[in-house]
UniProtKB/TrEMBL annotation:
UniProt keyword annotation of Plastid present: no
Signal sequence extent: none
Protein name per Swiss-Prot or TrEMBL: Methionine ABC transporter ATP-binding protein
Gene3D superfamilies: 3.30.70.260, P-loop containing nucleotide triphosphate hydrolases (3.40.50.300)
Natural source organism: Paenibacillus nanensis
One function term, GO molecular function aspect: ATP binding
Domain of life: Bacteria
Every ABC transporter domain range: 2-242
Keyword match rRNA processing: no
SMART domains: AAA, NIL
Length: 335
């Protein structure tokens, strides 16, 4: 649905060398997925996001959305295509002198729909984002979460194929963040719209994204399914992000541990989380095990679990158990 090929962006600066904000970025989003890009401040996330609708034109490279090479379009065709790419912003960017209703109607008026069609579409959108009761209020009378709902309704007005979210929850408290993220998840599910979001919060990625790319110094340094990246982060910056939200077990347990067996951390994912995999594996040997700690959590809609266990038995048996668990697709790390 979205393809970025070899994107470079250099900002021209007065009295200084150009600043290279994107270096050889390649990215492919499938239709209907929620894709997150995470990075520290200055990593190039906004530049990347704004390259997709060419609000920021790359210095070189190709941007393809819905099969169309945007970098090859003239200004008029680009304006048309942009209607199919909705965008929401950290600070909402609403018209302060217009009501909720008029803010949402704005892109429809630009698209020159009839008054009747505009009224019907605005009513639908108000209902979708839960703001029918506030339709005649002004932005200053709304909470942050309500303002972002107006932003979402406005972005969806022209029925886009893609929704770009620029730090859409960064100005909101945790509870409001959850309600906005669940609205985005609902919209993705109901309308099949492809969502690309940028954030500096791994909690946002864990809560709604299917896949994630990690950016540093204008490059994508790691990408994959959210579950893979969470359970096996490779790059140091990814490990930092994961540790910020991770409920990784271990340190407290191990400092109090005095047993003789070998201690392992086992990560389960998906349906395996609820299967007696450990019991079945140990049963075929003369070893036993003791559970020292365990947790089950969710990443988007996928359950995952972690166990810290002491495996008691001969080295041969314990080696066999670890190998068998790995064969069954579990991540096992000896601590
Ligand atoms: N118009 C500009 N001129 C010069 N440099 C710019 C311009 N816009 C952005 N930059 C620089 O490009 C780099 C990437 O900026 P960008 O806003 O894409 O990063 P970001 O990851 O979104 O960070 P943040 O979360 O702080 O917005 C930064 O170092 C920034 O200072």
């Amino acid at each position: 649905m979205i393809e970025l090929i070899d994107i470079e962006k250099a900002y021209i600066r007065k009295k200084a060398e150009p600043f290279v904000a994107l270096r050889g970025v390649n990215l492919k989003l499938e239709k209907g997925e929620i894709f997150g890009v995470i990075g520290r401040s200055g990593a190039g996330k906004s530049t990347l996001l704004r390259s997709i609708n060419l609000l920021e034109r790359p210095t070189s490279g190709t941007v393809i959305v819905g099969g169309v090479d945007l970098t090859a379009l003239g200004e008029k065709e680009l304006q048309e295509k942009r209607k199919k790419i909705g965008m929401i912003f950290q600070h909402f960017n609403l018209l302060s002198t217009a009501t909720v209703r008029d803010n949402i109607a704005f892109p429809l008026k630009i698209s020159k729909l009839s008054s009747k069609a505009i009224k019907e579409r605005v009513d639908e959108l108000l209902e979708l984002v839960g703001l029918t009761a506030q339709q005649h209020q002004y932005p200053s009378q709304l909470s942050g979460g309500q303002k972002q709902r107006v932003g979402i309704a406005r972005a969806l007005a022209n029925d886009p194929e893609v929704l770009l979210c620029d730090e859409a929850t960064s100005a909101l408290d945790p509870q409001t963040t959850d309600s906005i993220l669940s609205l985005l998840k609902d919209i993705n599910r109901k309308m099949g719209i492809t969502i690309l979001l940028i954030t500096h919060e791994m909690a946002v990625i864990r809560s709604i994204c299917d896949r994630v790319a990690v950016m540093e110094h204008g490059q994508i340094v790691e990408s994959g399914t959210v579950l893979d990246v969470f359970l096996n982060p490779v790059h140091s910056i990814t490990k930092e992000f994961v540790s910020e939200v991770s409920d990784t077990l271990g340190n407290d347990t191990l400092s109090a541990f005095e047993g003789d067996g070998r201690v392992v951390r086992i990560n389960f994912r998906g349906e395996q989380t609820y299967e007696p995999v450990l019991y079945e594996t140990v049963r075929g040997t003369n070893a036993t095990f003791a559970i020292l700690q365990g947790t089950v959590s969710r990443m988007k809609d996928v359950p995952y679990g972690q166990l810290i266990v002491e495996l008691r038995g001969s080295d041969d048996d314990v080696d066999r158990i670890i190998a068998e668990l790995k064969t069954r697709g579990l991540a096992v790390n000896e601590l």
